[in-house]
Design goal:
mainly beta; palmitate; 2 domains; disordered N terminus; cell outer membrane; Immunoglobulin-like; five-stranded mixed sheet; signal; eight-stranded mixed sheet; FimB/Mfa2/Mfa3
Amino acid sequence: MKKILFHIPAALCLAIVFALASCEQPVTGDVDDTKGEEQLSEGDINVKFNVCNLEMMPFDDAVYAARRVTDIRKACTRIELAVFKGDRRVAIVRQDKGDKVFGQVSLSLDEGEYTVVVIAHNGEGAATLTSPNEIKFKDNKVTDTFYYCGDITVDSDSSYDLTLKRAVAMVRFVAEDKVPAGVSRMRFYYTGGSSTFDAVNGCGSVNSRQTEIRDVSDAAHTSSSHYDIYTFPHSDDRPLNITVTALNSSGGIVDERKFEDVKVERNQITRYSGIFFGESPGAGRCISITVDNEWTQVDYSY
């Protein structure tokens, strides 16, 4: 008997594979956090979470009118809510400020014990929440960030109102003198803090070398200006060592200052203010330091 062999082109094989794959249901297992994908559970019990309060001191009085802000849109642009059962993540929902239900998350879970982690922040991309103890952010950039971490027991339909705490410390540099015309950016390089957050213990979880670049506004060339940087403080209250560099449009160094043993604390502003540039690069300057406890703020003069 003669056998007839059919040759199927590779391209057609791939088309068949993709067609079959398109008929599958959404995956509820692991997802790629770097792409901002969601992971939804398929339980029988409806659970709703309302991110209704932020427990905070206002970093910017012009933006936050009160210590407790009820509209999360005034403080954050992104929210991630993850649910863990033991070490396994069973759900993650991501929202941005444009979503109509921003701050409200509904899930279907099986009966059991869970840990809920919420991160609200202002990053350029989604946070990575593969573990409650190690939360990472796009490009390791830290912004004003709030968190919740707590355990729940799911046995019937329920709703939870969650109050988030601020996760970061801020250092604010105030240049009381005019920024020279040749300076277009300020670079802040600092160690001692963390760009990764441990929501279980409420502190930084890695030893980071952080770098932030801030553009110099036109107004800064005619009056005082300030520049804010953030970090997740460690549990042992270790200080930061910060190098502040004034750069020209080509990236060349115009002036540079180093600040050592900068004390930081979660929900606290440490403020360094003074004459940064002087009459010429390297000229004698003075610094003052204060701490604000509302955020709390600590002030230093330089």
